[in-house]
Amino acid sequence: MFSKAYSASVNGIDGMIVSVEADVSDGLPMFDLVGYLGSEVREARERVRISLKNSGYHLPPKRITVNLSPADIRKEGTAFDLPIAIAILTAFGYIPQKNLAHTLFIGELSLNGDINKVNGVLPIVYTALKQGFTRCIIPAGNVKEGAVVQEMDVYGVSCLKDVIEFLNNDSLLEPYFLDMDELFSNHRGKEDIDFSDVTGQELAKRAIEVGASGMHNILMVGPPGAGKTMLAKRIPTIMPELSFEESLEISKIYSVSGLLDNNQSLILKRPFRSPHHTITSTALTGGGRTPMPGEISLAHLGVLFLDEFPEFNRNTIEILRQPLEENEITITRLQGTFRYPANCMLVAAMNPCSCGHYPNRNKCNCSPNQVKRYLGKISRPLLDRIDICIETLQVNYKDLEEKKVTETSKDIRARVMKAREVQMSRYCNENFNYNSQLTPKSISKYCKLGKKEQILIEKAFTKMNLSARAYHRILKVARTIADLENADDISIKHLSEAICYRSLDKKYWEE
């Protein structure tokens, strides 16, 4: 007898429907699994067989063949255990085939019949909805994650016997409901850190406000203890709250990576990822034998903070060049091509030399060659992809003692949100949202300069020996500064401030 159930696998951060076909026939008792399977799926044969036995379902000695289609795409993971078991039971007549209509199954089976949680449930349920399925049966440990897709009936099950009874209408299960309004409202305004905690560094705060408004990449250079890390950690607090669509997009990445726990259905805060400088290129950008998202994708729509920037392996950080331009990572393997979003704000921090005190010769003992060698770990092509370079100066005792009342993250966020609203309105008919994403063609359209501004940028281009990429980035930053003031045109003061954010290149890298 033949039967068919439906499941899905993950390709990148998107789901792909897989049909699980089971055929039972006379012949030598065998259990074959076919369909271009990874090792975890091939091992499902023993897990399913013993799980069925321990759940009270004794299968007659027949030839069992299970095919996972399409057969030309590799299947990985343990999520196919449950649909394989359901397809086999249906083929033996334990479940009517009609009861599997419009139903998708996901789950890993234990040997005692329990159903364990798996990774990638959110993108799978979302794909199932797009493909016309009306209900999904998933592990109870994943039910909050799957219930994010409101239009789908999502059932959380804990053991195989519960699934069979439900499909045979012997028990009643209610689809899990998740109150999205309550979920978001409970989260709003809950921040443990604030920009008001930072003493001094007003120029750096201004530069960070500009960067957050246009999603510009930032490099902070300064001595140890000046507050670079403290500033970086507070950047997500001045970025706008996540919309549901943004939260869903980020959560799909975390779901595939297995980083959503049982009590977390959605990522509700802007990601802040701060990998150690010993990280490998694969962990930073993604990949591996079974491709998975890297840190740059986990920071999507948030902040990727690279502290001690020159201490990273040079080959590792050079890989960031293309993702910083294209806002996505493409990983090609024999079994296919995987794409992960990587639209994050890169924030890097570094000391100006090995000891951290250059150019203060009262404290710095590094030779000119040592300083040059240390700074040379950051290549010019990579530096050109950073929009804003700022210097954080050592905070003096007087600033610490006075404890001035400074702006809170809420105050700064209000200005950032207004600037972003201006950009969203301006680019409503474009395929990008932020000034940092402007192409050379769109720069000429949205960053027009007057005669005085053209003279200024021409002088800066010649005197600072700018590359074409650095020139374009100055115009993008100037556009953001103008948006913060709600100005239609880029003026001299906007352009001058943007040029100042590139002057650090000249001070440290071209002396």
Strand content: 15-25%
- Oligomeric category: single chain
**CATH third-tier fold name of the largest domain:** Rossmann fold
In the CATH scheme, the class of the largest domain would be Alpha Beta
Task: Briefly note the structural class of the backbone.
Answer: alpha/beta
Describe, in short, the structure shown.
The chain is an alpha/beta fold. The model has no long low-confidence stretch (mean pLDDT 90).
Any key phrases for this structure?
single chain; 511 residues; alpha/beta; Ribosomal Protein S5, domain 2; Rossmann fold; 2 domains; 23 helices; coiled coil; Magnesium chelatase family protein; Mg_chelatse_chII-like_cat_dom; CHLI-like
Structure characterization notes:
- The protein is an alpha/beta fold and 511 residues long.
- The protein folds into two domains: 166 residues, Ribosomal Protein S5, domain 2, CATH 3.30.230; 323 residues, 3-Layer(aba) Sandwich (Rossmann fold).
- 39% of the residues lie in helices and 17% in strands.
- It has 23 helices and 18 strands.
- The strands form six sheets. The protein has a five-stranded parallel sheet with strand order 11-14-17-10-18. The protein has a four-stranded mixed sheet with strand order 1-2-4-3.
- β12 and β13 form a beta hairpin.
- α8 runs parallel beside α18, α8 packs across α21 and α20 runs parallel beside α22.
- Pfam families: ChlI, Mg_chelatase, Mg_chelatase_C.
- This is Magnesium chelatase family protein.
- Belongs to the Mg-chelatase subunits D/I family. ComM subfamily.
- InterPro entries: AAA+_ATPase (IPR003593), CHLI-like (IPR045006), Mg_chelat-rel (IPR004482), Mg_chelat-rel_C (IPR025158), Mg_chelatse_chII-like_cat_dom (IPR000523), P-loop_NTPase (IPR027417), Ribosomal_Su5_D2-typ_SF (IPR020568), Ribsml_uS5_D2-typ_fold_subgr (IPR014721).
